[in-house]
Write the structure tokens for this entry.
Amino acid sequence: MINDSILKSLINKPKKISNLDFSEVSDIITQAQEIFEEEKLLIELNADKDEEIFVIGDIHGNLESLIKIYDLIKKKDPKYVIFLGDIVDRGQFQLECLIIVLSLKILYPNKYFILKGNHETLEMNKYYGFYDVYMMEFNQYSQFDEIISLYNKLPICIVVNDSILCLHGGIPENFEILNEFKTLDKKQLDETIPESVEYAIFQIMWNDPKEGLTGFMDNFRGPGIKYYGYEVFNEFMEKYNLKYCIRAHEVFPEGYRWFFDHKLLSIFSSENYRGDYYPNPASYAVIKNKTVSGELIG
């Protein structure tokens, strides 16, 4: 088993990750999965009014941005750090980013939390690169099964201080889903998952907010994916007595963007995600007491 000192070394010197063999990577995945198995689909966190919580958006293999984020975390020492998913795909250092985030989770399981995004799926990894990266590194298709098993153990949402909802994409058409998450046993979902829950999880990972819209409408991203407007967003939030929502999933040239009368904050934590022709700063959210702010990562 890889010990804590090795994990800390990998975090501080990410280039060492490329020298790991499959058994070592597998050990990290297994250790992280065992922690995720004990977490609920909906996690509830509470912090004192003076304590900060950092919320991190899409990383997508951008090691430089992840290092800046970790330096900021070390400097500011927030109570909790929440990753909203999409750690891999597209970027140059996908395996390195995944191993760093999993190592942080193993070392500090009650400080770091990782949610499932739409790129924590086999379909997206095959289309956008991480599957090929993994195959080139370890050369056996069956070995990717461990990654999929890990993804399937990730929580879906986090509610902070009884008032702030954190997720990857957005609200689903099934408004009962947060209540359903509280009663579902994640281990039972390995065998069978109700269709309504599966579809709601899919939409939580994929749906996007849209100003000027009241209800739901079809999204260009694909079948079953929706835009959601102010009216249905407000209805969902009021149902659970929530004040803010923090999500990721979309990149904006200004780094982060507020929607719906400053109630929904959309962040993205991979700098210059689309290259120099469409530059963007990396951003993150800060929760303090029951307030939310968007911040740029310098």
Notes: The longest helix spans residues 22-37. Residues 54 and 81 are 5 Å apart (CA to CA). The chain has one domain: 17-296.
